[in-house]
Amino acid sequence: MKIDNLLYKESEWLKGTGPKANTVISSRIRLARNVDGYNFFTTASPETKRKIFDDIQAAVKKCKTLKGASLLSMKEITELDRQFLVERHLMSLEHVAEPESKGLVLDDKEVVSIMINEEDHLRIQVLQSGFNLTEAWRIIDAIDNDLAERLRFAFSPRYGFLTACPTNTGTGLRGSVMLHLPALAMTNQLNSVFQAISKLGLTIRGLYGEGTEATGEFYQISNQVTLGYSETDLIDNIEKIISRIIGRENTTRASLLSKNKEEITDKVWRAMGTLRSARIITSNETITLLSTIRLGIDLAIIKEPDVKVLNELFILMQPAHLQKLEGKALSPQERDVKRAALIREKLKS
Amino acid sequence: MMCDICNKREATVHLTEIINDKVTKMHLCEACAKEKGEEMETHFGISDLLQGLADFGVPHEVKGKKNLKCAACGFMFSDFQKIGRLGCPKCYDSFAPQLVPLLKRIHGSDRHMGKLALKMEKGKQQPSRVQELQELKIKLQEAIAGEAFEEAVVIRDKIRQLENSLGQREDNENR
Question: What interface predicted TM-score (ipTM) does this complex get?
């Protein structure tokens, strides 16, 4: 696979077509698995890491569910390319450093990605557009079974799938939903929502996962608990709680519109004005303004652009994407100029 | 318990800091813990908090044991306390007395209820036996909780029998 081809391609999960696409950007499930008989990645010797890589590569090639998927070796691609894959949510930031024996399996729709030799030997991920954990589970369960026919996973009847960190033991399943919650943020309801969530075994993170800040009122909510429940129960729990949050966000949006129509309309058009006129813009400011535009579209304050265009901008305006579009390394200042130009081009009225 | 920094929100993160050999314990809410985490310029994931959790609920006689080592990979339990990651799958058995309370603390449970590893199922009809073992273990917990001790003894013996036969099988498969 040529990584550059992805640049001009629309990822499946960015189409903005899935269920509840007005509040939910994407749904993701990942499974952590390790191959039995080897040390976990952190303590494995370089030879062991290579063996694990080879075992997994051989298994992946035989999997029907992964037919047509490409396997990228991290050390054979540039650091910019690795950064680019992180920005597309296809792998973690942790996977960028020390590329030796690390790999990524990727299908051409960018629905399935498998990190090889991350914290666990395998991190299988399935991404879906909108609120659709059930479909993500259906896909990932089949891939997991397919792989399990060819690899013997580290498993204990008592503890389930054994992972390097005990926070993932059992199902090894993390389901996350990326939500856009501007109305709850504007009305200062987020804190109480987050407090309630933590009591229900869920956790909240920023746009790019663990340790990142929330920007533009985008939040990732996922399960913290992985042991003691079945996979479907875990997913069911996330879905039920998130449905309530979505409901609350939507009613708050409606009441904001009826009570503060002028203010919101003004805010949306100002955001549009800035994005259409700016000559220099940081990624943080872009995310904040795109967030406002997104709300404006949902509340029918503006009709254009299409959510697809917004989603595309979210991805393209990131540092590695801008540099790949430009075909050369750019300083942060140069990126801010390039970003502003790209946005003006995409939002031309 | 209220947060030590803002004193407004419920403390959900419990942090142990060692500065100049002096141990200080902090009880923080999520928001202040996040700020504190940024201050320390580390990324502040749950695994980083494991050190504080790793001793939770561990019986004293076990706590006192220094230099605990995994027989399979040689990984030290003290290293787990430092990096929050285990050495190999067998570490789960080697450090069971330490890990079981930790798993309960993290997940509220120490028993897998999800899908089974397929490769085990296909090899020598283990699925039903593994499943059976899991069910028996749950029954045992229930019997103990309901103080039905005679029943519990019967279940315990069944579990031992089954575990023995499964253990032999695993050994055979592992060669």
Answer: 0.88
